[in-house]
Amino acid sequence: MVGLAAWHIWVILALILAGLELLGAQFVLLALGVSALGGALAGAGLNLQLISVAITALVLVPLFVRKIHPYLLPKTPYGTLGSGAETGQLAKVIIGNGGKPAVRVSGNEYPLRWEGEAPPAAGDTVRIVSVEGITVCVEPASKESVSK
């Protein structure tokens, strides 16, 4: 069996770093993995490979983290109910199970608690104020936000 060449080690390191990126490292490990591939392509000589990896990492890490990663993030807030991501969103009032008013948030139906004078009717647009357990607290939506 023939021993590993230096470029083999750089490629193995690149694959390991790219795999670890799946754990959620905000594209830092992916940029370092691509930099390790730069070391594999640099040619003979450990010094040249290390310099190539260092320079490539200095360029790619900020590029991946500041430019590519934000571009791939969702444009709308997301999260589980109660995480605060739904606060301020508009929702339509529906008639839920048992004939009680409810709202649909992220495809799921939740009972509502009204923060206003008159309770809403089915079809009214409301603004989510907060979430307490599985109950969504809502208030009337202003006319300007409904027309948007």
What does this structure look like?
A hairpin with a 2-residue loop joins strand 4 and strand 5. The protein is rod-shaped, with a radius of gyration of 26 Å. It is built from four helices and five strands, in the order αααβββββα. The chain is α+β, with helices and mostly antiparallel strands and 148 residues long. The protein starts with 5 loop residues before the first helix and ends with a helix. Strands 1-2-3-5-4 form a five-stranded mixed barrel. The mean pLDDT is 84.
Keyphrases for this structure?
rod-shaped, five-stranded mixed β-barrel, alpha+beta, single chain
- The 3D shape can be described as rod-shaped
Radius of gyration computed on alpha carbons: 26 Å
Helix content: 40-55%
Spatial order of the strands in the main sheet?
Answer: 1-2-3-5-4
What quaternary form is this? Answer: single chain
Secondary-structure content class: alpha+beta
- Return the average pLDDT rounded to an integer: 84
Q: Which range does the strand content fall in?
A: 15-25%
Distance between the termini: 69 Å
SS field, number of helical segments: 4
Low-confidence stretches: none
H/E element string?
Answer: HHHEEEEEH
**How many strand elements?**
5
The biggest sheet amounts to: 5 strands, mixed, barrel
